[in-house]
Amino acid sequence: MKKRHSSYSMGLMLIVFASLGLGACGPNEQQKAERAERKRVECLDKICQGDVEPPRDYTKDALLKLNGHWFVGPMYYYSSGINAASFSWPSKKSREDVPQEERDGSSDVVIFLTGRGRWSDPKAPTPWLSKGEGRFEELQKEGFRMERQQLRPDLERVRFFDAQGKSYRREFFIATNEKKPLGAQAPSINCDPPDVKGTIHAMAGCSGGFFWQPDIYVDFRLHAKHSSDWPEIYKEIIRILALLKKV
């Protein structure tokens, strides 16, 4: 009987100790503050519980939140609660406006918007003034040979090759007659290169980005087969961004 009572007491003590341990492992004041700050930053670019949404035409306007401010844009390109837009190329139509049988996900251009609070360095005063071809210089220092080719009056392609003549994993296209919204640089994209036979892979893509406003960065994705249309695609991206209005 004494042995059974001893086992019961020991089990009770273990439960008490476990409960105390769990309490001790809870977040301290610093951890709570850090979590609150992460939540605050997250909600600058995200519709969160307790937000009071501005009035809008729910049949036409999509609602976005950037840097704690509200923006509306046409549902034809934007979606509520998602800081992004998209359009089909070369039709320039919204994906939803393209018949199902004609849809090709690889033909879509997707635009993402990010507020300053979620940048890697949110306190950078004028990050758009960084050197435009810094990456090119880095690759040359690494031993890559640079090849520049003017594909047409408003489009330049830049490629890099190693000592054995093998191409670098990305190639660059520059819309030489255009200028980014901030800074003096020409807008560019970097793309997966074609294979040795000149064939562009079905999953090959391009990406790029620029500072659209002092507090908003924009980056985008498109299929590499459209790289030769980069100047026109850039103009369409700018046009669609201009449809987004702060409210």
Would you give an account of this structure?
24% of the residues lie in helices and 29% in strands. With 247 residues, it is an alpha+beta fold. A nine-stranded antiparallel sheet has the order 3-4-5-11-10-9-8-7-6. Strands 1-2-12 form a three-stranded antiparallel sheet, with no helix packed on it. A hairpin with a 2-residue loop joins strand 10 and strand 11 (216-223). It is globular, with a radius of gyration of 26 Å.
Ordered list of secondary-structure elements with their pairings:
Elements: H1 2-24, H2 29-44, E1 61-66, E2 69-74, E3 78-79, E4 82-88, E5 108-115, H3 134-141, E6 145-152, E7 155-161, E8 171-174, E9 188-191, E10 205-213, E11 216-223, H4 230-242, E12 245-246
Which terms would index this structure?
about 250 residues, alpha+beta, nine-stranded antiparallel beta sheet, three-stranded antiparallel beta sheet, 4 helices
The best one-word shape is: globular
Poorly predicted sequence stretches spanning 5 or more consecutive residues: none
- Element-level helix/strand string: HHEEEEEHEEEEEEHE
The rounded distance between the terminal residues' Cα atoms is 76 Å
Number of strands: 12
Percent of residues in helices comes to 10-25%
Structural class of the secondary elements? alpha+beta
User: What value does the average pLDDT take?
Assistant: 87
How many helix segments?
Answer: 4
Strand order of the largest sheet: 3-4-5-11-10-9-8-7-6
Return Rg in Å: 26 Å
Portion of residues in beta strands equals: 25-35%
* Major sheet: 9 strands, antiparallel
